[in-house]
Amino acid sequence: MSVSDALKNRISTRAYLPTPVAAATVRALLDTARWSPSGGNLQPWKVLVVANEAKAQLERLAVETLLKNPLGEVGDHPIYPAGLSEPYRSRRFKVGEDLYALLGIPREDKAARLRSMARNFQFFGAPVGVFFIIDRSMGHGQWAHLGMFMQSLALLAEEQGLATCLQEAWGMLRDRLHRHFALPDNELVYCGMALGYADASAAVNQMRSERAPVEDFARFSGFES
Q1: 71's torsion region: left (phi>0), alpha (psi -120 to 50) or beta?
Q2: What pLDDT does 182 receive?
Q3: pLDDT of residue 79
Q4: How many other C-beta atoms lie within 10 A of the C-beta of residue 184?
Q5: Residue 74 has pLDDT above 80, yes or no
Q6: Going by C-beta distance under 8 Å and a sequence separation of 6 or more, which residues neighbour residue 62?
Q7: What stretches of the chain adopt beta strand conformation (E)?
Q8: Fewer CB under 10 Å: which end of the chain, C or N?
Q9: Is 25:222 a contact under the CB 8 Å cutoff?
Q10: Residue 177 contacts residue 131 (beta carbons within 8 Å)
Q11: Contact, 175 vs 190, CB < 8 A?
Q12: Cβ(140)–Cβ(16) under 8 Å?
């Protein structure tokens, strides 16, 4: 599979088969992903991989925490900035509406939308969950490098016939996850990732979000043609 094919084929997979993924498989993916770009070779990433009972514990933790506070924890690293401006606000709104339309959930059915959202905290049924950790002292450059590492991992999974979903939703539980994993004070949970084999029969996996054309985000100068 080419890099181009992996990029175009990868989606946020939201339904998985129960087929297990071996630890050796995940280790091999990480062993290649570690060659991702890293400014100053800081390699500002740490990874926690969970399966079976370790994953089930996190699913129970999420239910327990969100039953007490459905909006999650308020922290200094919000998933989206306050007062999201255009065109970003409309893009976020549209992808949400497209997803719920595909699932047949009308806007007024808030309970069904909450249940759909809650699937995040079951890793959408994936057998493996991955969490990405960064040192709190790192700056925006190192967060970008962590993102490159995550992208590499997702594309490598695609190459091996595995599916992924990057899950910023776990950011709603950062403090609780920090305590659960017994992380040192200087470390921060960024987000999670569901990893497994896609359920091709699930309607939700037909979802492909739109992308703006190159003309909308790029400028060219100095070229002769």
Answers
A1: alpha
A2: 98
A3: 87
A4: 9
A5: no
A6: 121, 173
A7: 46-51, 128-135, 163-167, 187-196
A8: C
A9: no
A10: yes
A11: no
A12: no
